[in-house]
């Protein structure tokens, strides 16, 4: 199982306190975006709607196939964390070896306990440059 994490590069001008607050906003953004059925295209770095659930899974979950929110129990998204904080970057993801890391991997690569299938992948770890700029602007304002 691969460790699921993403590195967010930041300018070095932010204090440790600001970086931790920025990380919290990024994590909240990823959670909210994922729960609205949108992830990030790893090739373009742009937001992208998740692929629909299979008929069987939608029936099991009791939702429509297009109601994709990555929250059967909400544990996986709740377990996303700031893993590392450096002056020039944040590492956001899951503790390696955990059940939530395994669930994240299934979504990221479309494996869901089977061989990876890119057509079923729902990549959600990451943030667009535009969304990151919107968050960082709050910390760039002169007080």
Taking Cα atoms only, what radius of gyration do you get, to the nearest Å?
Answer: 16 Å
Structural class by SSE content: alpha+beta
Q: Mean pLDDT score, rounded? A: 94
Helical element count? Answer: 5
**Distance N to C terminus:** 45 Å
Task: Please tally the β strands and state the result.
Answer: 5
Shape: globular
The proportion of residues in beta strands is 15-25%
Number of domains: 1
Sequence stretches where pLDDT stays below 50 over 5 or more residues: none
* H-E order: EHEEHHEEHH
**Assembly status:** single chain
**Main sheet specs:** 3 strands, antiparallel
Please state how the strands of the largest beta sheet are arranged side by side.
1-5-4
Task: Give a written overview of the molecule.
There is one protein chain. The protein is an alpha+beta fold and 143 residues long. It has one domain (5-140). 38% of the residues lie in helices and 15% in strands. The chain contains five helices and five strands, in the order E-H-E-E-H-H-E-E-H-H. The strands form two sheets. Strands 1-5-4 form a three-stranded antiparallel beta sheet, covered by helices on one side. A hairpin with a 2-residue loop joins strand 4 (81-86) and strand 5 (89-93). Helix 1 packs antiparallel against helix 5. The longest helix has 20 residues, at 16-35. It is globular and about 50 Å long. It starts with a strand and ends with a helix.
């Amino acid at each position: 199982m691969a460790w699921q994490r993403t590195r967010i590069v930041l300018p070095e001008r932010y204090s440790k306190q600001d970086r931790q607050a920025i990380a919290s906003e990024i994590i909240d953004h990823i959670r909210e975006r994922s729960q609205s059925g949108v992830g990030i295209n790893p090739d373009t770095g742009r937001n992208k709607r998740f692929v629909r659930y299979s008929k069987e899974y939608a029936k099991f979950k009791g939702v429509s196939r297009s109601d994709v929110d990555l929250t059967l129990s909400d544990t996986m998204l709740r377990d996303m964390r700031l893993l590392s904080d450096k002056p020039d970057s944040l590492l956001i993801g899951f503790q390696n070896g955990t059940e939530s890391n395994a669930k994240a991997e299934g979504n990221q690569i479309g494996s869901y306990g089977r061989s990876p299938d890119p057509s079923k992948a729902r990549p959600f770890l990451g943030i667009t440059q535009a969304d990151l700029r919107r968050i960082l602007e709050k910390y760039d304002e002169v007080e």
